Amino acid sequence: MLERLFKLSEHGTTVRVEVLAGITTFLTMAYIVVVNPAILGNAGMPVAGVAAATCLAAGLGSILMGVISNYPLALAPGMGLNAYFTYTVVKGMGVPWETALGCVFLSGVIFLLLTVAGLRQLIVDAIPRSLFAAVAGGIGLFIAFIGLSDAGLVVAHPATKVTLGNLTAPNALLCLGGLLVIGALQFWRVRAAMLIGILGMSAIAWLAGMVTFTPGSYSLADLSATAFKLDLAAPFHLGGDLGSALLEVTFVFLFVDLFDNVGTLVAVTKRAGLMAPDGSIPRLNRILYADSSAAMIGALAGTSTVTSYIESASGVSAGGRTGLTSVVVGILFLLCLFFAPLIQAVPTAATAPALILVGALMMGGLADIEWSDIRTGLPAFLTLVMIPLTYSIANGLAFGITSYVALQALSGNVRKRDWLLYVLAVLFVIRFVYLAGG
Predict the structure, then answer these.
(1) Above 80 in pLDDT, residue 239?
(2) Is 161 within 8 Å of 149 (Cβ atoms)?
(3) Of 332, 361, 390, which marks where a domain is finished?
(4) What is the pLDDT of residues 143-193, one digit of tens each?
(5) What is the residue range of 426's domain?
(6) Contact 176, 166 (CB under 8 A)
(7) How high is the pLDDT of residue 155?
(8) What is the pLDDT of residue 1?
(9) Segment 340-372, tens digit of pLDDT
(10) pLDDT in the model for residue 199
(11) DSSP conformation class of 418
(12) How far apart are CA 58 and CA 306, in angstroms?
């Protein structure tokens, strides 16, 4: 049955290799079970419920991807999108988390419709590749800054806006120790480096009396605090400031998921040797169907946008070549459901090193930007810095696309095929004017 479903022989692999690859991928991304609830918990969401939703969404999403597309791509709530959900949408804009989940679900529906209509490729082709890399880097800085803040390594200052925190404080020391441990484990290619670092620092925090944890009920029925709590009606209330804001939120969820997904697909399929000779990705629409469906499943379960994970490349390096790898990852995430309530016992300072390191790893794509060409370098730079400095991925996208179009036009490089990019730029300019007037 497995041979018929996943065509193992055709891809030169075996059940044993695929299972080991799945375990490898799971270990490299299992940190999300700890980190995602820590971030979304700051939005006022029940931490245990988010932990269960994270396990359920990652499990079902990965299995769906494996069965539908037969690619070794694992899915889970995306880093960066969860930070945008919490710090920009809920805390920054004052949007209830239930409404934000409704926006996540709506973005998944739009993504699915764009894929069915064939418009997804049009959008992907319109966005300059330099901005793909800049968005990833900006989100990396955003995530790292949140981790540094959570650990108290960076604190607010009335004169300089931010400054160095107290490095002798327990949380700061715990974070620095975690960074060293995870960094060393990463160097020695330990697959579960982040998870080991988080659990190790959590154990130290417990022994040092830094954690207060009162365990509650551990039944799965008690973990339904976030399931089906999304507000689907609010995103359709188009009147007033809130209606405009929710449209923007949905747009950002959609576009960042699109960028994240395409970047991961290219990286993983290229490393696995699954990319076609002309650079295209076979069965691309199936991948996108699975990804958009997983986003909707995640919103229903009670978590931010679910997307493909670059950590899937670790399973590919271990020999994974088919969707069976993803199915194994999904099963392991579903097994984590039974331990989800224990996530509340993990202190924020123990998850901060993972945030900082993930942010650092997202810087790699910046090397692909042609910085010497001001028409690509400046828009990429503006995208990169405006995301963390304004605490908004939307602002980074707006500055990047608008400046790119302006510089291309001023240099006389106006092309008909870029019409959609110009439409987006005009919409962003209208957005800037609207925000200034508000």
Answers:
(1) no
(2) no
(3) 361
(4) 889 889 989 999 999 999 999 999 999 999 999 999 999 999 989 988 678
(5) 369-438
(6) no
(7) 94
(8) 80
(9) 666 667 788 888 888 888 888 878 878 889 999
(10) 84
(11) G
(12) 7
Q: What is the pLDDT of residue 421?
A: 87
Q: Does one domain contain both 244 and 353? A: yes
CB 104 within 8 A of CB 289: no
Q: Which of 325, 354, 334 is nearest to 82 (CA)?
A: 354
Of the pLDDT bands very low, low, confident and very high (cuts 50, 70, 90), residue 241 is: low
205: helix, coil or strand?
A: helix
Name the pLDDT band for 210 (thresholds 50, 70, 90).
Answer: confident
Tell me if 112 is assigned to some domain.
Answer: yes
- List the structure tokens of 234: 């609010």
CA–CA separation, 54 vs 59, rounded Å?
8
Q: Say if residue 138 is in the same domain as residue 84.
A: yes
Q: What b-and-e string marks burial along 107-141, b requiring 16 or more CB atoms within 10 Å of the CB? A: bbbbbbebbeeeebeebbebbbbbbbbbbbbbbbb
* Domain shared by 101 and 194, yes or no: yes
Closest C-alpha among 123, 131, 137, 140 to residue 370:
131
Nearest-5° angle of CA 225, CA 229, CA 233? 170
Token representation of residue 414: 């106006």
Residue length of the chain:
438
Query: What percent of the chain clears pLDDT 70, i.e. is strictly above it?
Result: 87
The answer to whether 168 touches 183, Cβ cutoff 8 Å, is: no
Indicate if the pLDDT at residue 271 is higher than 70.
no
Nearest CA to 223 among 82, 26, 54, 79?
Answer: 54
Structure tokens, 320: 């994974």
pLDDT digits (tens, 9 = 90+) for 53-66: 999 999 999 999 99
Q: Report the distance separating Cα 51 and Cα 68, nearest Å.
A: 26
Q: What are the C-alpha distances in Å from 302 to residues 51, 290, 305, 331? A: 9, 18, 10, 19
Q: With cut-offs at 50, 70 and 90, classify the pLDDT of residue 428.
A: confident
221 is a domain residue: no
- Lookup: tokens for 298: 């995640």
Please tell me the distance from the alpha carbon of residue 401 to that of residue 357, in angstroms, as a whole number.
28
**Residue 161, SS3?**
strand
Q: What is the distance between the alpha carbons of residues 130 and 408, in angstroms, rounded to a whole number?
A: 14
Report the DSSP beta bridge partners of residue 75: 308
Residue type, 22: G
Mean pLDDT of 367-378: 93
Domain identity same for 262 and 150: yes
pTM of the model: 0.75
* CA–CA separation, 193 and 196 (whole Å): 5
The CA-based dihedral angle spanning residues 316, 317, 320, 321, taken in that order and rounded to the nearest 10 degrees: 60
